[in-house]
Design a protein that fits this description.
- Strand 12 and strand 13 (206-209) form a beta hairpin.
- By secondary structure, this protein is an alpha+beta fold.
- It has a six-stranded antiparallel beta barrel with strand order 2-3-7-6-5-8.
- It is elongated, with a radius of gyration of 36 Å.
- The relative contact order is 0.08.
- It has helices at residues 85-89, 102-126, 151-166, 178-184, 243-264, 271-307, 339-350, 380-391, 412-425; strands at 3-4, 14-25, 28-33, 35-36, 50-54, 60-68, 74-79, 95-100, 130-135, 140-144, 171-176, 197-202, 206-209, 224-232, 235-242, 311-314, 325-334, 355-361, 367-372, 394-397, 401-405.
- The protein contains nine helices and 21 strands.
C-alpha cells in the first residue's frame, strides 16, 4: 500500500517515488507508486491532478484523475496518447517524480478547510450538524440536519466564519486512537474505523476526523461566501465558496448586476425593485392584451358569421350523429394568427346557436381547432382524431371542442376542406 504523504504535509506538491505496478482499469492506465502526495477523490473532496516524470527517460505523463482502489491503493490515472507508453509504465522500481497542480491543490485546501469551519459554526450557532459535504469544480455544498435556515441565520454564519478566518487560527493535524478521539470530543468519528484516526483541529473551534488536505491557518482560507440554500430530503443544503473562488464569484456577481443595472439605468441595489415594477407592468400589459384579443375575436366572430354562406340543412335521421335543423358552417385557415387566438375565436363562434367552426393556424406549427354550439349534432373530438390520423398528427377533445397539431408542412386548408366535406355529406 502506498505511503500517503499528504497525510502529514498537505503543502507538498513535488515528491520522489518509484513505480510499484500498473493496472488497466476500464480502458485506462492507472499507476501505483510506493509513495504519493496525490490526493484521491474521497470524503467529498476532489482529486488532485498533475504529472509523473520518469527520472531516467524524461517521459512525462499527465495525471488526470486519482482514485482509491478496492485494496486501498492510490491509483494514478494517466493520459496515454499511444500504446507505446504501456510497456514503459509496467517496469517496477523505476524512479519517478510527482508534480501536483499546485493552484488546484490550494483551491481544494481552501474549500475543504472552509467546510470544516462552516460546519463548526453551524453547530455553534444553531446546533445544526453537517450530514454530507460535496466539492464541485465551481462551488461546494453541505447538507445540514436542520428544518430551515433564515436569511439572518445565513448572514450570521457567514460573518462568524470570516471573523475566525481573520483571527488566523492555527489548523493542525493530529493522530489518535478511537479512545483518545472520544476523550478529545471529536465532532465526527467514522463508523467504519479500523486504524488510527487522522484529526484536523481548528484550534478552539473544531476537531474532526478527516483524511483530506487542509490549510495550516484559517487566514489561508481567504474568505467564505455563502450562496443559496435549498430544502433537501435530509434538511437544508447550503452552497458556498472559499478563497479565490469567493473572489471570482463575487466579481462575476458584481459584473452581472452592473450589466443588469445598466439596462434599467439604475443602481445595482435598485434592481430587485425595478424587476418587480417591470413584472407588474408586464402582467398588466398581458391582461390588456388578452382583453384586446378577446374583443378582436368577438368582432371577427360576428363578421365571419354574417358572411357565412355555407349552410348545411340536416334532416332527421340523415346522419347518426346529426340532429334535424340547419347549421352555419364557418371554415377558415389563418396564416397570421397562432393557435391560441384561433381557439379563442372558435370559442366565440360556438357561443352562437347552430354553428360549426372549422379553423386552422399555419404557424408556428400547423394546428386545427374544431368547435360547435353546445349540444350540436356532430362529435368534434372524433372528427379531429380522424383528421389527425390522415395528416399524421395528434389531437382530440370533447364533443363540442377539439384541437390537434399536424406535422410541419401539412396543408391546413386541405384538412379543413376534407372535414367540411364530411359534415356536408352527412346531411
Amino acid at each position: 500500500m502506498s505511503e500517503r504523504l499528504y497525510y502529514t504535509d498537505p503543502n507538498l506538491t513535488e515528491f520522489d517515488a518509484t513505480y510499484l505496478e500498473s493496472r488497466h482499469v476500464a480502458g485506462q492506465l492507472a499507476l501505483v507508486l510506493d509513495r504519493t502526495a496525490f490526493y484521491p477523490t474521497s470524503g467529498g473532496q476532489l482529486h488532485d491532478t498533475g504529472w509523473l516524470l520518469e527520472t531516467g527517460s524524461g517521459t512525462k505523463l499527465r495525471v488526470s484523475e486519482v482514485a482509491e482502489g478496492e485494496d486501498g491503493s492510490v491509483l494514478h490515472y494517466v493520459e496515454t496518447p499511444a500504446d507505446d507508453f504501456f510497456p514503459l509504465a509496467i517496469k517496477r522500481d523505476v524512479p519517478v517524480r510527482g508534480v501536483i497542480d499546485a493552484p488546484r491543490r490550494r483551491d481544494h485546501m481552501q474549500q475543504h478547510t472552509g467546510q470544516h469551519l462552516l460546519s463548526a459554526v453551524f453547530i455553534e450557532l444553531l446546533n445544526a450538524p453537517t450530514v454530507s459535504f460535496h466539492m464541485g469544480d465551481e462551488n461546494c455544498t453541505i447538507d445540514l440536519y436542520v428544518k430551515s435556515l433564515g436569511v439572518e441565520q445565513i448572514r450570521e454564519a457567514e460573518r462568524r466564519c470570516n471573523e475566525i478566518i481573520t483571527d488566523d487560527v492555527p489548523v493542525a493535524i493530529k493522530f489518535a486512537t478511537l479512545e483518545e478521539a472520544c476523550a478529545l470530543g471529536v465532532r465526527k468519528i467514522p463508523a467504519d474505523l479500523k486504524d488510527t484516526l487522522r484529526l484536523i483541529e481548528i484550534r478552539g473551534h473544531d476537531l474532526t476526523a478527516c483524511g483530506g488536505t487542509h490549510v495550516s491557518r484559517t487566514g489561508e482560507i481567504g474568505s467564505i461566501l455563502l450562496r443559496k440554500t435549498e430544502k433537501v430530503k435530509q434538511g437544508v443544503r447550503v452552497e458556498f465558496v472559499c478563497g479565490g473562488r469567493a473572489i471570482r464569484t463575487a466579481r462575476k456577481d458584481f459584473e452581472t448586476l452592473t450589466s443588469a443595472a445598466a439596462l434599467f439605468s439604475s443602481h445595482i441595489y435598485d434592481i430587485p425593485e425595478q424587476i418587480r415594477k417591470n413584472a407588474d407592468e408586464a402582467k398588466a400589459a398581458g391582461k390588456r392584451q388578452q382583453k384586446t384579443l378577446a374583443e378582436l375575436a368577438e368582432f371577427m366572430a360576428a363578421a365571419m358569421l354574417a358572411d357565412a354562406t355555407d349552410r348545411v340543412a340536416l334532416v332527421s335521421g340523415a346522419a347518426s350523429d346529426a340532429k334535424a335543423g340547419s347549421i352555419r358552417l364557418v371554415k377558415r385557415a389563418f396564416t397570421d394568427r397562432d393557435v391560441a387566438f384561433v381557439k379563442l375565436l372558435a370559442q366565440k363562434l360556438s357561443t352562437q346557436p347552430n354553428v360549426v367552426a372549422l379553423l386552422g393556424a399555419a404557424s408556428p406549427q400547423p394546428s386545427l381547432v374544431f368547435a360547435q354550439s353546445a349540444g350540436g349534432g356532430f362529435d368534434m373530438g372524433n372528427l379531429m382524431k380522424e383528421a389527425m390520423a390522415a395528416a399524421g398528427g395528434r389531437g382530440g377533445g370533447s364533443r363540442d371542442m377539439a384541437q390537434g397539431g399536424a406535422p410541419a408542412g401539412a396543408d391546413v386548408q386541405a384538412l379543413l376542406d376534407s372535414v367540411a366535406s364530411k359534415i356536408t355529406n352527412a346531411s
